[in-house]
Specification:
By secondary structure, this protein is α+β, with helices and mostly antiparallel strands. The protein has one domain: SH3 Domains (SH3 type barrels, Roll), CATH 2.30.30. The chain has one helix at residues 2-20; strands spanning 28-32, 40-44, 53-58, 62-68, 75-78, 83-85, 91-95, 107-108. Strand 5 and strand 6 (83-85) form a beta hairpin. The longest helix has 19 residues, at 2-20.
Length: 110
C-alpha cells in the first residue's frame, strides 16, 4: 500500500511540474536555466528525444534560437546546429540582445 501511495504521489508531481512548464515559441536569445545547476540540457541532432545528443549545455549558457519547429511539442533549432526542447523548464528568454553574449562552447558529445 505504501508503494502504491508513493507511486501515485510521484506521478502527480510529474504531472504538476509539466503542467506549469510553458512551450516557448519565439526566436531570439535564451539562457539555459536548470533547477539543478549540476545537470545539463541535451542539444540533439533532430527535434525529438529519439535523436542522438550532439552537445550538452550547462546552466547559464546562452543559445541563439534561429527557428521553431512545429511538431507535437515545439523544439528550437539553435546557432549550435542542434535542437533543444522549447520549454520554460529549461530556457529563459533574454530577448533580442543588441550586444551578443559571449559565445558558449558546449561540451560536444562524440
Amino acid at each position: 500500500m505504501k508503494c502504491l501511495i508513493c507511486s501515485f504521489t510521484a506521478i502527480c508531481l510529474l504531472f504538476v511540474c509539466s503542467a506549469n512548464a510553458k512551450n516557448l515559441r519565439s526566436t531570439g536569445t535564451y539562457k539555459v536555466h536548470l533547477s539543478n545547476p549540476s545537470n545539463h540540457l541535451n542539444c540533439r541532432t533532430g527535434p525529438g528525444i529519439n535523436f542522438p545528443i550532439r552537445a550538452h549545455l550547462e546552466h547559464g549558457d546562452f543559445v541563439q534560437v534561429l527557428h521553431v519547429t512545429h511538431h507535437k511539442k515545439p523544439w528550437f533549432y539553435t546557432n549550435l546546429r542542434c535542437f533543444v526542447r522549447a520549454s520554460s523548464n529549461f530556457l529563459k528568454w533574454q530577448g533580442e540582445l543588441k550586444k551578443k553574449p559571449k559565445p558558449t562552447k558546449p561540451k560536444i558529445v562524440r
